[in-house]
Specification:
Strand content: 15-25%
Number of domains: 2
Largest sheet: 8 strands, mixed
Order of helices and strands: HHEHEHHEHEHEEHHHEEEEHEEEEH
Shape: globular
CATH architecture of the largest domain: 3-Layer(aba) Sandwich
CATH class of the largest domain: Alpha Beta
Distance between the termini: 49 Å
Radius of gyration: 20 Å
Length: 341
């Protein structure tokens, strides 16, 4: 199939006076990292790819599951059946809808050890994650390196987003000085509407386009909350830095340094992620080794192993997601038994 020209793809967008030919060229020259390609991340990735952002790096640690399909617009049933990593499936779909955009997939968990290599060369960072630990890491890195980023989240019928412009607006640590303590509602426990995801993802994407085309003065300086079910909207001022902010004022980057970062954590519904150290795993060799002990499937990107009530999904960097338990001790024992300590 022949590649379509930029004039064919972006003609209606170029007609919009806020972008025009000059703005479209700026989009083509931009590099954006999207951390997390689940619900909000897949909406953002789709919109930015179709808008013509020249380079997109999709970073996601997870694989496609059937429960994702209700709201994660880049994936289909075949991706779920083959447990394709989200970053890989997303890159394939985005490249198919706009071959003029270079899409790079990174099947990885963003950590203090790899954050520099994954984010430093990008113009803008978009948040599509589902946890505050990773968001605080992004915030530390973005403030330290003076890279703007856009926070986005959705749960139930509510979407939330905020632009963080280093040196100009409040950062995440200004607005939320401490990580939420105790149990938090998640999509698995509270549910989520795909319309809430689409709405807030579109809001975040429009802010990204403003920044990338040089219309930064038009960007919102508030924390926006929208409820698509109860038709409610609120904005909290986020223009001023908090005088004692440990991140953007005191320059204490505790999450970037890796202080107190968990290497074993609950990961979604009834599962635990283990990523204590990077170790190269030969998936083909592991498949042969595990065959006598249970059911094994390998797609080249990850290996899935069923043993009794447990399901282990193992990635080439040694990371594993153990489904069927929230007991860290059980998860660690299974990991050590079948992959070694």
């Amino acid at each position: 199939m022949p590649t379509l020209s930029s004039n064919e793809i972006y003609s209606r967008q170029i007609l919009f006076r806020g972008i025009g030919e000059e703005g479209q060229q700026k989009l083509q020259n931009s590099r954006v990292a999207i951390v997390g390609c689940g619900a909000t991340g897949s909406v953002i990735a789709s919109l930015l790819a179709r808008a013509g952002v020249g380079f997109l790096r999709i970073i996601d640690r997870d694989y496609v599951e059937p429960s994702n399909l209700q709201r994660q617009i880049l994936f289909d049933e075949d991706d779920a059946a083959k447990f394709i990593p989200k970053a890989v499936a997303a890159a394939k779909r985005l490249s198919a809808c706009n071959s003029n955009v270079k899409v790079e997939s990174q099947v990885a968990d963003l950590t203090p050890h790899n954050v520099e290599s994954l984010l430093a060369d990008c113009t803008l960072i978009m948040d599509g994650t589902d946890n505050f630990e990773t968001r605080y890491l992004i915030n530390d890195f973005a403030i330290a390196k003076n890279i703007p980023w856009i926070y986005t989240a959705a749960i139930g019928s509510i979407g939330v987003t905020m632009n963080i412009l280093p040196g100009e607006t409040a950062c995440m640590a200004c607005m939320f000085p401490d990580s939420p303590n105790g149990a938090m509602e998640t999509c698995e426990t509270f549910g989520i509407l795909n319309a809430a995801v689409a709405g807030i993802g579109a809001s975040a994407s429009s802010e990204a386009l403003k920044f990338l085309t040089g219309a930064k003065a038009l960007m919102r300086r508030t924390l926006l909350t929208e409820d698509v079910w109860w038709t409610d909207r609120a904005e909290l001022p986020a223009e001023a830095q908090r005088a004692d902010c440990r991140c953007c004022v005191r320059r204490e980057f505790t999450h970037l340094s890796g202080e107190n970062r968990p290497h074993i954590a609950l990961c979604g519904s009834n599962s635990v992620q283990i990523h204590e150290k990077t170790r190269t795993i030969d998936l083909a060799e592991l498949e042969q080794r595990l065959l006598p002990h249970g059911t094994v499937r390998c797609n080249g990107f990850a290996l899935r192993f069923w043993r009794g009530p447990y399901q282990l999904t193992i990635f080439p960097d040694g990371r594993a997601i153990i489904k069927g338990t929230t007991d860290v001790g059980v998860a660690r024992s299974l990991y050590a038994r079948f992959l070694g300590a």
